[in-house]
Design brief:
With about 160 residues, the chain is an alpha+beta fold. It has one domain: Gcn5-related N-acetyltransferase (GNAT) (Aminopeptidase). It has helices at about 15-30, 35-45, 45-50, 95-110, 125-135; strands at about 5-10, 55-60, 65-75, 80-90, 115-120, 140, 150-155. The protein is globular and about 40 Å long. It comes from Croceitalea vernalis. Pfam families: Acetyltransf_1. InterPro entries: Acyl_CoA_acyltransferase, GNAT_dom, NAT_camello-type.
Amino acid sequence: MSYSNQITIIDFEEKYQEDFKKLNQWWIEKYFTMEKMDFQALDNPKEYIIDKGGYILIALLKGEAVGVCALIPTKLSDYDFELAKMGVAQNAQGHGIGYLLGKAVIHKARLNGAKRIHLESNTILAPAIRLYEKLGFNEVKGLPSPYERCNIQMDLNL
């Protein structure tokens, strides 16, 4: 069963700050360790992402935040944004929510004039890598990364 027709995707509101943190922290701690960049983005999303020209989208199911994803302005000269901090509640995974969020965040990037976005991940997250490929991302090599856990980088020309 897909939740697709029951999901509403909205722009970040302060009341979802704890959900943004919680929906990311659980998967990071399940597979990895929280790093400095994680704490910066998750503890202060408005300051670290929104105020710098970025965006956070929230997927709601019956009014409850079940997914989140961010577009963070990047300092990499060939890219406009980094797709980052995508998380879906454990009990809501496998129902197309990540795909809906990915499509929405790519659309948001296009609306804001972006030509190219990138992301950083880890191949241990095989379902996430398949999702990124389904969204049109391709693997790239050689980008600098502040994350120890990053072992794959991908990009998308818009």
